[in-house]
Amino acid sequence: MPDSRSLALRPSRHPRSLWIAGLAIAAVSTGAYAQDRAANVEEAVDFKNQAPDDRVSFSLHGGATFDLSSDLDTGDVSVNRVNTGIDIAFSLPEDAKFILSANSEYSWYDFDGATGLIAGTGDPLDQATSFGFGGQLFVPMGERWTAFGGASVNWSYEEDADVGEGFTVSGYGGASYDFNNGFKLGLAIAGGSRLEDDARIFAFPTIDWQINEKWRLNNTGPRLRLGYKHSDPLTLFVEGGWESREYRLSDSSLAPDGVLRDDRVAIEAGAQWAPHEQFIITGSVGVVAYNEYEVLNSVGDEISEEDADAALRLRLGATFRF
Prior knowledge:
Strand content: over 45%
Number of helices: 2
Radius of gyration: 20 Å
Helix content: under 10%
Shape: globular
Number of domains: 1
Largest sheet: 14 strands, antiparallel, barrel
Order of helices and strands: HHEEEEEEEEEEEEEEE
CATH class: Mainly Beta
CATH topology: Lipocalin
CATH architecture: Beta Barrel
Distance between the termini: 21 Å
């Protein structure tokens, strides 16, 4: 998901890939309202690898994503999203780190004639909100191993829905090994409750491979990025990954108190520019190659499922750290 531009006086022993993987795993297991900041995770992470003298550090981040119109089996849909968040990192003894995070995402769905999802309406969802709070801990275990874990609470719901009915909880844990040759590899297990469904638990590797001075390959949860450091302020990248969201529907919906799920796979190419060590701008263009919508009723039975055609994606983001 580039070389550190931290304000550190000296670097922490933490494998940098663990910071990246940890933040992303948390985002994925929470229902992915933080997915739209995935392009900025790496830059936001850098500031946390500060010397123990910097006891507390902050990162503010925000962005917007525009998934343009795509055809459904019936009708079409486009989605605009805006996300904001803050991370607060605390340096602990023995180079351990603890991070508190708060994130939010606002989504505007523009369905037109999508009568196949909920009978009687062509507009099954208009505006949806997701927000959550979490904590994460990273602890070195000797010179090469690092253990990590975290948990979060989250709410995702349609406008006018009962906020409490959109509640889920998630967590993750794992470890990584630094091979000391520019290659770090680990394993993470993440899990979380779901709206009107069984909990989801899955495992996947974490990787951070500094191929050479210019090229880097790493992942943030289910997103894989290949980056090229063109110059000190400019990094180019190609990345792709899976995103999963779900929202509690309102009691006035034609599927009252039901759930709408939105799963998609996107591939993007873009650039990140750091005109100052504390400020980073990211932009990308890509395609949503796969997109599936599913609607459940209030007891978890499937009402409908439809796939959307490929759609163009535009993304902008910014991170400020101090």
